[in-house]
Amino acid sequence: MAAAGRGRAASLVAAWHGIGRPTVRLGAQLRRSLHTSTDGTPVAVAIHPETRSATITMQQAPGNAVTDSMLKALLAALDAVEADRGLRGVMLTSSVENFYSVGISLDIFTRKEPEWLDYWHNMRTFFYRLLDSRLTTIALVNGHAPGTLREAGRGVSAGPHH
Fold first, then answer.
1. In whole angstroms, what is the distance from residue 151 CA to residue 1 CA?
2. Correct CATH for 2-139 of 1.10.150.20, 3.90.226.10, 3.40.50.170, 3.40.50.300
3. Do residues 117 and 108 make contact, with C-beta atoms less than 8 angstroms apart?
4. Are the C-beta atoms of residues 93 and 128 closer than 8 Å to each other?
5. Mutual orientation of helices 113-132 and 68-83 as an angle, nearest 10°?
6. In terms of pTM, does the model score above 0.90?
7. Per-residue model confidence (pLDDT) at position 147
8. Helix, coil or strand: residue 14
């Protein structure tokens, strides 16, 4: 039974992900990559018209740390997919081998108050945008995720809500 469940889950992910379908590029800042970004872009967006879904892929090696640029790119990606009224869902995943995200960038704790508050405002905005989105959201955690989302969002979780 467990093996059948894994097969079904893999099929659902493959169907959701639109494997083998072309990607739509949304501006110069958002780019799809198979591994990590070669141009320094922290996030890529792929639209899958056949499933009416999108994939937002974090691609900031070495571990997808949630930096200022990552947060701004995630918010811009969410803006782009929510603006497409034809979409029903979005999946957040990683292209960095072995890592979904290492979590909050530790340099935030060395900053002065205005910068620190701006970072946390953007972090909170991102979590609330995910929670309030009209789109069905899925986190495909395909690597290590020490403390990611659940800790940063103080109870906001990418996993099942209990």
1. 33
2. 3.90.226.10
3. no
4. no
5. 30
6. no
7. 63
8. helix
